Amino acid sequence: MSSGPNLPVTKPVAAWNKPLKANFKDLFKALGKGVADGVTGQWGGVAKDLVDASVAVGLANEPSQLAWLLIYRSLTQAIVSLVKDSQELLIDQPDDLESFSDRLSLSLEEHELTIRPDFFDQPQTLSIIKAIQIPLKQWLEGFIPEQAQAQAISNRLPTYFIFALNREWAARPQDYVPIKEQFQTPFTSASERRQGWLLYSAWLQKQVEEPMFSEAFGLKQVYVPLRAYYRRKKVSRNSPQDIDNYFKGNHNETFERMVVELEEELDAWVQTADPGDAIRVISGGPGSGKSSFAKMFAAHHVQKSWIPLLFIPLHQFDPKEDLVEAVGAFVEDDCLLKANPLYALSRELR
Questions:
Q1: Residue 190 CB: number of other CB atoms within 10 A?
Q2: 237-251 per-residue burial string, b: 16 or more CB within 10 A, e: under 16
Q3: Which residue in 53, 203, 210, 330 has the fewest CB atoms around it within 10 Å?
Q4: 153 and 215 Cβ atoms separated by less than 8 Å
Q5: Are 71 and 9 in contact (CB under 8 A)?
Q6: Cα–Cα dist 175/156, whole Å
Q7: Percentage of the chain surpassing pLDDT 70?
Q8: How buried is 271 (Cβ within 10 angstroms: 0-12 exposed, 13-18 middle, 19+ buried)?
Q9: Residue 72 burial (CB < 10 Å; 0-12/13-18/19+)?
């Protein structure tokens, strides 16, 4: 966990001379207009236009003001992304979008923010995240018939915010130099390669929150931990004859099934890091949960361990190619990591 001074968060004075709640109301009005106009494929532009129109970077030059800019940009992008991923569920329309947005419970005008040293380790705990989930749920209820679905979508905001925060810092690090000078963050001491892994880790965690089958829930909400088994050689030694045959090499090999909790078994395997046991294969019939397990394992692993993990769906990977080159091609198409993570390792082994 990081250590250092707390950083009170304030709005840039010249740019934020109107109430804080008005800016978020503008966000929800713009989102509502996008839904009403049937905007698809343009949500990224909605987020960029809202942020760029609201804040001029030149007016935010102190660490506290830039911290607010970082949070607002990330939060805006997270909300837009969340709405975009759930747009198929937004089938209702409020009668008067303007007054509907004005009625949202955006009691954030007096909301004071303080960035503690552990903020960048656990950004989802920032108080404004919980506060903004209330009006977000109310806004969603104006477009979604089922209130439970609106709640489920708003519950995913913290994970989306983590990804947006990492992506925002990676995209515009020069804007936040004074924050780096104020106190240490994971971004401050990280190389470009390390920052890529931070962003990739946040992306993996977001994957299990994204909606499934055009529903409000994601994999994380419905996943059931799996059990698995492996076969172990079993030799009968119940009689003197069996023992005699065993030592003479005349025994028949039979196998027994060893049932395990799959995630616990693979966690132990990863931590052991035995070079002689470098590959594990999970097999099972269609629909048995292999892909879902792989996603959940990747998301959980990056939360509790700093051992780099690369998640590659097999349909995006050519097993006939050289391993290093195939991974490099996947990383280049994925665009989250800046370099092939196997390239440096392969040079060391040559």
A1: 15
A2: eeeeeeeebeeeeeb
A3: 53
A4: no
A5: yes
A6: 27
A7: 71
A8: exposed
A9: buried
Regarding predicted confidence, which is higher, 156 or 336?
A: 156
Torsions phi, psi for 42 (to 5 deg): -120, 15
Q: How confident is the model at residue 47 (pLDDT cuts 50, 70, 90)?
A: low
Q: Tell me what pLDDT residue 106 has.
A: 64
Give the distance between the most distant pair of CA atoms in the chain: 92
Burial class (CB in 10 A: 0-12, 13-18, 19+), 215: middle
Beta bridge partners of residue 258, listed in sequence order: 230
What does the pLDDT look like over 18-36, one tens digit per residue?
333 346 777 888 888 878 7
Lookup: tokens for 296: 């959940």
Q: Which two tokens stand for residue 195?
A: 């920052």
The token pair that represents 273 in the structure block: 């890091």
pTM, rounded to two decimals: 0.74
Alpha carbons 239 and 346: distance in angstroms, whole number: 53
Mean residue pLDDT of the chain comes to: 77
DSSP SS3 for 260: strand
DSSP codes, 114-139: EE-TTTTTSGGG-HHHHHHHHHHHHH
Distance of CA 60 to the CA centre of its chain: 28
Distance of alpha carbon 267 from alpha carbon 139, whole angstroms: 41
d(CA 136, CA 105): 9
**How many Å separate Cα 96 from the centre of its chain?**
35
Number of residues assigned to the chain: 350
CA distances in angstroms from 204 to 33, 73, 188, 298, 325, listed in the order given: 31, 21, 22, 7, 22
E strands present in 125-247: 227-234
Query: What is the rounded distance in angstroms from the CA atom of residue 149 to the CA atom of residue 153?
Result: 6
What average pLDDT does the segment 246-258 reach? 68
Structural contact between residues 2 and 179, judged by C-beta atoms closer than 8 angstroms: no
Burial of 111 (0-12, 13-18, 19+ CB in 10 A): middle
pLDDT exceeds cutoff 90 at 293: yes
